[in-house]
């Protein structure tokens, strides 16, 4: 409060009393009070919208509002402006209630004089200021507590996720490790009893178990990389249509093994554009291999790449086992496998990787599926201009 410019809004319908208050303020030793007088609550509220006041002097009997009901809209509109209520001798109780409900002070009209008025105004302003200060400190504290709590919850979730991740990973590594232990044990202990054919078969089993483990570790480390923000998009000029055709050739062996009809369509005109081939391989590799893996022998897989002005859409559709509704929302979480996979092998990491790679390329991935009918994955990647 600067000494020379205390702005007071007086809401008082009685002209004589308003004039008296103005007189008292004029008599104050320094001319530090600047008072605006209105006669109705409505006018007061309007005035508070137009200008900034240091304090409100409020009569509790107004033509458009009676008693404490005047306080509510004033506090709601200007919560930081102190209010001093003016009462008659016989309604002191009402005045005390007004203070309880948020007014800073009250003045009994008959007892008002310059000193009392000036003291009440200053006291109200200062009290309100310290209350406001406290309120702000409190609000800040509350915000900080909320922020820390949110951080703690997040950290707890990350820790829980990490613990689950490690436990799933060690579980999935144990299987191939056991197979290796078993096969090497057989080779070691029965060396002279085993036929060459059996030995080769055990060695093949060991190789394939090691390959599985290496694959699992590669996938896990890719997810780790994505989670720590290290999965970056490295763009190089690439003709998407040619790339997709070549990619289909690379997975031809898997297609043939299941005797599937595989259809590849490219829709639109494809020029060389900037893409991250590594990310594309992870996305399409996982989705296409899943479409093949979860198809029934003799089934059909459709792979379409559609060129749009600013984006490219990949559609991977199969008519395989489908995904139960309750699993669909968790599919992209690491290690989640639907309950209808039966004995079809898998780690549950492929879709998590595909999603993270699509996101690293600024895109998104979605699924629509019905059990026994089939599944379609759609990936939309924005074209990135150099
Ligand atoms: P997985 O190694 O188990 O295939 P993914 O992360 O690639 O792991 O997929 C997660 C789960 O999503 C799978 O276990 C399977 O239940 C379901 N899934 C993914 N693609 C298909 C599909 N094309 N058809 C049916 N189910 C699918």
From TrEMBL:
Residues 168-385 form the Histidine kinase domain. Residues 124-158 form a coiled coil. Its EC number is 2.7.13.3. InterPro entries: CheY-like_superfamily, HATPase_C_sf, HATPase_dom, His_kinase_dom, HisK_dim/P_dom, HisK_dim/P_sf, Sig_transdc_His_kin-like_C, Sig_transdc_resp-reg_receiver. Keywords: Coiled coil, Kinase, Phosphoprotein, Transferase, Two-component regulatory system. The modification 4-aspartylphosphate is found at residue 59. It catalyses: ATP + protein L-histidine = ADP + protein N-phospho-L-histidine. It is an enzyme of class 2 (transferase). Gene3D superfamilies: 1.10.287.130, 3.40.50.2300, Histidine kinase-like ATPase, C-terminal domain. Residues 7-124 form the Response regulatory domain. One of its GO terms (molecular function) is phosphorelay sensor kinase activity. Photoreceptor which exists in two forms that are reversibly interconvertible by light: the R form that absorbs maximally in the red region of the spectrum and the FR form that absorbs maximally in the far-red region. This is histidine kinase. It comes from Cyanomargarita calcarea GSE-NOS-MK-12-04C. The lineage of its organism: Bacteria, Bacillati, Cyanobacteriota, Cyanophyceae, Nostocales.
